[in-house]
Write a structure and sequence with these properties.
Length: 1042
């Protein structure tokens, strides 16, 4: 049997009807005579029949809508035929870009439908298939029912060039291969069945040589020329050989090819006239019952019984098969009945309750053979040898119906226990061998972990290794086409990245979830009474910040219970004097150890400002601290932690970020606890191996290495980059998990997302710039490398999530629009993906419940806020990969919905008594402006600024991705079979992919909502360690006077 590639095109009048070949439509003026053409020049008889089918079905569709029929027009046919032949020559389908210039005179408007079908199988009406493609394509459907059209041209052309070696491209097995196969089959059977007498005319002689009896097939269709060749071939074969014992004319012609019983009866009579052998035709059981005239004209009945296609579970399939057989036997008691096809595939998609697997195939065939022997039934198993090429005809199950695989080896034993997976021993051995090595390494390397932690991680590690063992074995379980190998090449790295992210997250989980694992927990270590206070220089960089907020921070610094310190406030690139002048004026009231610098035009963003601060730092400063402009610190901050610098190896003492002013607004509350999770969980995890992330606030740094190395201005995450450099120099960084100050949450979801995008971009910048340090020779320990590489894997996972979401939408469109080219992903891909999502979604809340002191609602609120950042993080990752430089964008704080104003006021009210007294005595403050500023012009009244992200623009991309994924899921649900497992799983994948984008939309709405006034209740806050408790999550006034 030879199958070629058919291109069709249709041209219609006034707006598009074109198929591939090509169908073109146009509006023809009434003064132009309609001309009917029987077949375009150079088109075969069968092609002409396909064109007629297209015309008939299009007009039937139009009639159902009350529209006038289209008339075939010779000149439009010529245009359509020309384009079809061009597409066939290029073996590529597309619309004709210049079709308007080819229309005949009198045509107005244009419409084009194009289509391509692989499969000129005998008896298959490709015209009907093409029409079905257009019928389910909205744009093509609109063309066919356009009321302005009145003429139609159709063109058809072939291209027999195929990429793969299989019967569909005319490359049949050679004589020696068939002879070898017959020799193999002769060990299992004495009878074989074929479907065509033309494609392999040497088969009867080869069967005779192998001692096999042949039930010969005669392939018939609407192509009478082809039919005559088949009749001649079977007549010759019967005359020349003795192997043929009976003949089957046609295969499921009534079921699939749309032929009438009368046509099939005529074909059977013709064969009977030519050969003296019993003649039948092959149809499923219900066709025989519906058309008893077929049985009356057949010498025997050839019935097909394939319960897999009926969607039955294998446990019921055997009874169903014999039940249908007995039904046919009762209907035709005087006829011999031969089962022409019976079987079950070993691989393929699930159909309702039918599951294709090696075990199901073995169970069904074994049971059938026993029953068939008991009832003395004549049958042919579907089929002797697997046929990989049949995937193009029958989908995933097509290649796997054979008892022997494509390598001519039995796929299962006819006796003994049924193995669910014939290759399971090899896969299990591979997974176990790799797993044992990995587990022993982990158990000994992390012997400090509690036993439950090691056992839990070991189980997940073994599960991941087993998954990859099964993936490696895929080529041994399936017949891989080039497109399958391409998919596998994409699939394996994707699953590898996903599994790596899962294992790194789970390692953090097992270490942090079970108590007793942490060895390095640093507490406040107050200076002894009368002990020397090392000089501390505190730097506060600000740009376009609200003056009240900055002043509140300065007041809290002035109130520190510490004497030997200075405060440098560096305002850089703030143009509006209303923002920086009030800060300058307030600084003028403070002692001389408070210095203000205004830098009108200064490079390097925050790092540049901090580097300027280093040039103004007191020469005797031993420690340099950095505080963000919105942070209100506790009085004992310095006194409680500077003693850690007595150890000369200590370079950084980091306190956690904490927040205030969030309790009265739902989304601010969510942000607060989302931040809190990292400082209660992630920082402790990294602190165990001296690999913490330094943050640009509430951080103290040894002056000497900082003055030597300075802040890096090339990255927008200069704090984390400094930490990496200090670790490479052999220093220790300590994390003291006690709240020493509280800042403000971002004003809006848009600001929240923008901040995280900046962090992600900076992280990738650091990995690129320090690739040699992280991956090459350096002083970093293996653990430090691990944390700095894998610590950002979750963000890389968000980038992969975005890529997969776009790919999933595109693939779903392909499944819906071109199901013959695109198939659903295999379960081995979808199940791990779904499991990964749920596993990761479960780990976060469980760790929050164990490590973060918060209410149950806050656990889920933090999870929602974290998921909502996925798209922003993905943007940051890609920006970091593609761009060498980045712009530092200030996170909007202190100006949102008004919920934080009270905290600023209370901070202002907290009197920094030592500083205030000195200011009252007239002490001068060192205030510097690096360039003279012109006299300010009268300011125009400022228009109220809409907070960023209040509009849908802040989540426009997330909303589009959400809609795209949900529409794709809906499209799959509307076009796939009901109760189809792979379809259902793919829809679940699409919906799960949409969850982060849905979370972003929800967070944007919550961010825009008004503040929610909550009743204040004294409570212990998440993030406070030991006995440090506060009410209303620690207001600024409490922080300032603590």
């Amino acid at each position: 049997m030879k199958m070629t590639r058919l291109f069709a095109g249709a041209l219609l009048a006034a707006v598009p009807l074109v198929a591939a070949p090509a169908a073109q439509g146009a509006v023809i003026g009434t003064d132009v005579p309609a001309q009917v053409i029987e077949a375009p020049a150079g088109v075969t008889q069968s092609s002409a029949a396909y064109a007629q089918t297209i015309l008939t079905k299009v007009n039937e569709l139009r009639a159902s809508h009350g529209l006038k029929p289209l008339t075939r027009y010779v000149q439009l046919d010529a245009v359509a035929q020309d384009w079809s032949e061009q597409m066939a020559a290029r073996n590529f389908m597309s619309h004709r870009p210049d079709r308007g210039s080819h229309y005949p005179a009198g045509a107005s408007g244009s419409a084009e439908n194009v289509a391509m079908r692989s499969g000129d199988a005998p008896g298959v009406d490709i015209g009907a298939m093409i029409f079905e493609q257009w019928l389910h394509s909205p744009r093509h459907y609109e063309n066919m029912v356009n009321r302005d059209l009145n003429a139609l041209g159709i063109g058809l052309a072939y291209n027999s060039a195929q990429r793969w070696d299989n019967p569909l491209d005319g490359r049949n097995a050679d004589e020696s291969s068939i002879e070898k196969d017959f020799k193999i089959l002769s060990d299992y059977t004495t009878r074989v069945r074929t479907y065509s007498s033309v494609d392999q005319p040497n088969i009867p002689a080869l069967a005779e040589k192998a001692g096999l009896h042949l039930t010969a097939g005669v392939w018939v269709s609407k192509d009478e020329e082809r039919n005559q060749k088949e009749f001649d071939a079977i007549e010759k074969a019967v005359h020349d050989t003795s192997s043929i014992e009976r003949v089957i004319v046609g295969n499921e012609q009534v079921l699939h090819a749309g032929r009438t019983p009368a046509e099939l009866i005529q074909n059977m009579r013709e064969v009977k006239r030519r050969v003296r052998k019993p003649v039948s035709t092959a149809e499923p059981w219900h066709i025989w019952l519906r058309y008893p005239e077929l049985a009356a004209n057949a010498d025997f009945i050839t019935v097909h019984l394939l319960p897999y296609w009926e969607g039955l579970p294998v446990q019921q399939a055997l009874e169903y098969t014999f039940g249908r057989l007995h039904e046919v036997q009762r209907r035709f008691p005087d006829k011999k009945i031969v089962i022409g096809e019976v079987g079950w595939p070993s691989q393929g998609d699930r159909r309702d309750s039918s599951r294709a697997s090696p075990a199901s195939q073995a169970e069904f065939i074994r049971g059938f053979l026993v029953r068939a022997a008991a009832e003395n039934i004549d049958y042919f198993l579907m089929e002797g040898i697997d046929q990989p090429w049949k995937i193009e005809l029958e989908g995933r199950a097509g290649p796997y119906w054979g008892y022997l695989d494509a390598y001519r080896q039995p796929k299962y034993s006819l006796t003994g226990p049924i193995e669910r997976d014939p290759n399971w021993e090899t896969k299990a051995a591979l997974a176990s061998a790799i797993g044992v090595v990995a587990l022993f390494w982990f158990m000994f390397s992390f012997s400090n972990l509690q036993l439950p932690s090691r056992i839990a991680f070991g189980l997940v590690l073994q599960a991941v290794i087993s998954l990859f063992a099964w993936l490696v074995a895929l080529p041994f379980d399936y017949y891989m086409r080039p497109i399958d190998w391409t998919f596998l090449v994409i699939l394996v790295p994707s699953l590898l990245a996903m599994s790596t992210i899962l294992l790194t997250n789970f390692f953090e989980f097992v270490e942090m979830f079970w108590p007793g694992n942490l060895r390095h927990v640093y507490r406040p270590r107050p200076l002894a009474p009368g002990a020397r206070e090392p000089k501390v220089s505190l730097h506060l960089a600000c740009c376009n910040e609200q003056p009240d907020m900055v002043i509140a921070t300065i007041k809290s610094l002035a109130a520190l219970d510490y004497t030997n310190f200075e405060v440098l406030v560096i305002d850089n690139n703030t143009k509006d004097e209303k923002l920086w002048k009030p800060v300058e004026e307030f600084m003028a009231t403070l002692p001389e150890n408070f210095k203000f610098f205004h830098l009108p035009k200064w490079p390097g963003f925050k790092a540049g400002a901090l580097n300027y601060g280093l040039t103004q730092t007191a020469p005797d400063a031993e420690i340099i601290g950095v505080v963000d402009a919105d942070y209100v610190v506790v009085r004992r901050w310095l006194k409680d932690v500077v003693s850690y610098f007595d150890d000369p190896d200590t370079a950084v003492v980091q306190s956690p970020q904490a927040h205030r002013g969030w309790s009265r607004h739902t989304f601010r509350r969510m942000m607060n606890y989302e931040y809190d999770g990292f400082f209660r969980i992630g920082m402790h995890h990294r602190n165990e191996r001296n690999a913490i992330i330094q943050h640009g606030t509430m951080t103290l740094v040894r002056a000497q290495p900082l003055l030597e190395g300075k802040w890096s201005e090339w990255t927008i995450c200069e704090d984390a980059e400094l930490a990496l450099r200090l670790m490479n120099q052999g220093y220790t960084l300590r994390y003291v998990d006690v709240v020493m100050g509280r800042g403000l949450t971002p004003d809006t979801f848009f600001a929240f997302k923008k901040q995280r995008k900046r962090w992600a971009q900076g992280a990738i910048q650091i990995m690129k710039a320090h690739a040699k340090t992280l991956f090459g020779r350096s002083n970093l320990t293996a653990a430090q490398r691990y944390h700095f590489i894998t610590g950002w894997f979750s963000w890389i996972g968000d980038a992969l999530h975005l890529l997969f979401a776009l790919a999933a939408i595109a693939w779903s469109i392909g499944i819906i629009a071109a199901p013959h080219l695109f198939s659903l992903p295999i379960l081995l891909f979808m199940i791990p993906l779904i499991a990964f999502f749920f596993f990761k979604a479960l780990m976060g809340p469980l760790m929050y419940m164990r490590r973060v002191r918060c209410e149950q609602k806050d656990v889920w609120g933090a999870a929602l806020a974290g998921m909502a950042l996925s798209h922003g993080i993905a943007q940051g990752v890609f920006s970091g990969l593609w761009n060498k430089t980045a712009v530092f964008e200030v996170t909007e704080k202190g100006g949102g919905a008004g919920t934080q104003a009270a905290d600023v006021e209370s901070a202002s009210a907290a009197s920094a008594t030592p500083a205030a007294d000195t200011a009252a005595a007239g002490a001068a403050v060192d205030t510097v402006t690096t360039s003279p500023a012109p006299a300010p012009k009268p300011a125009k009244p400022a228009k109220p600024k809409k907070p960023a992200g209040m509009a849908w623009g802040g989540v426009r991309e997330e909303a589009l991705l959400l809609i795209g994924l949900l529409v794709a899921a809906l499209g799959i649900s509307m076009t796939r079979l009901p109760n189809h497992l792979e379809s259902a799983m793919w829809m679940v994948v699409l919906v799960l992919q949409a969850v982060p984008y849905m979370a972003a939309v929800v967070c944007a709405l919550l961010s825009a909502s008004k503040a929610k006034h909550l009743e204040k209740k004294p409570r212990k806050t998440a993030g406070q360690s030991g006995n440090e408790a506060a009410s209303d999550e620690g207001s600024a006034s409490q922080a300032a006077s603590a």
